[in-house]
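User: Let's play a game. I give you a shape written as tokens, and you guess the letters that built it. Ready? Here's round one.
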């Protein structure tokens, strides 16, 4: 009887051993190796901003600053690690009135190279490039021939250097808020610089 029990136990051990090994194989086969996703190093983005802007002229210790105007800016660009580039389209929304003359930026087209310092949810940047702006000048001037007032309205072009600083805070991986201040050299036309401070939304893809 004792020999029969020993034989039965040996048979059971022989049968269960492959089943246990098979179960172990199933566990190993069901495991999946998850590789961490590598962060994307470059992004394409688009911005839409509203801005308040001024024409300003400095002469020695006297600084003359114009009334504020308003503008809208649309930007598209690409950034790679610490560097980037973008194209900017600007549209003036109002004009200033001084001494019977009106002055406003009708439109702007600018290109920038950008140097960035990225963070986890926030990055700061400096940018510099070249702009071409359409400036509208109008009003009335004294006509010495008639002794009266002569009305005029012209659209002139100003080209020059542009530079600025700013930052972007991201609420999510792709949506954020951007703010910047930029100076456009328009002294070739009106002996004044055009400075715009803007804020708006940004989306990166």
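Assistant: Ready! My guess for every position:
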């Amino acid at each position: 009887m004792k020999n029969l029990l020993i034989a039965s136990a040996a048979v059971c051990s022989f049968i269960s051993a492959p089943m246990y090994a098979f179960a172990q194989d199933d566990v190993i086969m069901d495991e999946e190796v998850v590789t961490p996703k590598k962060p994307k190093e470059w992004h394409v983005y688009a911005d839409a901003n509203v801005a308040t802007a001024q024409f300003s002229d400095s002469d020695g210790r006297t600084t003359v600053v114009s009334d504020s105007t308003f503008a809208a800016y649309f930007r598209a660009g690409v950034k790679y690690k610490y560097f980037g580039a973008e194209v900017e389209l600007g549209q003036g929304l109002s004009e200033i009135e001084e001494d019977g003359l009106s002055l406003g930026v009708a439109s702007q087209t600018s290109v920038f190279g950008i140097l960035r310092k990225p963070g986890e949810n926030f990055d700061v940047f400096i940018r510099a490039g070249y702009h071409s702006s359409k400036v509208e000048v109008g009003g009335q001037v004294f006509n010495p021939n008639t002794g009266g007032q002569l009305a005029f309205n012209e659209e002139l072009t100003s080209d020059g250097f542009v530079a600025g600083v700013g930052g972007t805070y991201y609420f999510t991986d792709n949506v954020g808020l951007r703010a910047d201040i930029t100076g456009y050299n328009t002294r070739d036309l009106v002996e004044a610089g055009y400075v715009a401070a803007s804020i708006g939304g940004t989306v990166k893809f």
